[in-house]
Amino acid sequence: MHTLPMTAELWPAVREIYREGFATGNATFETELPDWEKWDSSHYKHCRLIAVKAIAPSTSVTSGNNLTVLGWAALSPVSSRHVYRGVAEVSVYVAAAARGQGVGKALLRALVEESEANGIWTLQAGIFPENAASIALHKSCEFREVGVRRRIGKLGNAWRDVILLERRSPTVGT
User: Fold this and answer.
1) Which fold has domain 2-168?
2) Which tens digits make up the pLDDT trace of 130-147?
3) CA angle 64, 69, 70 (to 5 degrees)
4) Strand pairing partners for 59?
């Protein structure tokens, strides 16, 4: 497995993994899958990663050919205000067939490293309490639970809580 920058050419595979997350009912408040342009405009241009597995051992991972996308991670700004320029929201999605294999941890660790290289000092994640695997993943990567945002939004007709986790960089913004 390798982590690489996400490109528009791999969006169909990334979007399919996003769709699998939607199907769980415990990954996002979003109810419609975005097209590339909408997704692209709402996320940072840096800090977009995919985890891939080369199908053929001789395949160059950077070629974009013969790759299986196992998961993706990206950052989006939390605010347009200058004071929050170093704070970003984390998204991590792993293909259903690749869950429990360390893909999420590899992506999140690489995303933390990439975020610090780009001046991000705080990462935050809002996770449904039912998504125990995602909460455990974030905590294993030095995120701490800040609190619970009770009935913060509706998914369909049901009010949902969100656990807010954050990770403060020990090197950026100190």
Assistant:
1) Aminopeptidase (3.40.630)
2) 999 999 999 999 999 999
3) 150
4) none
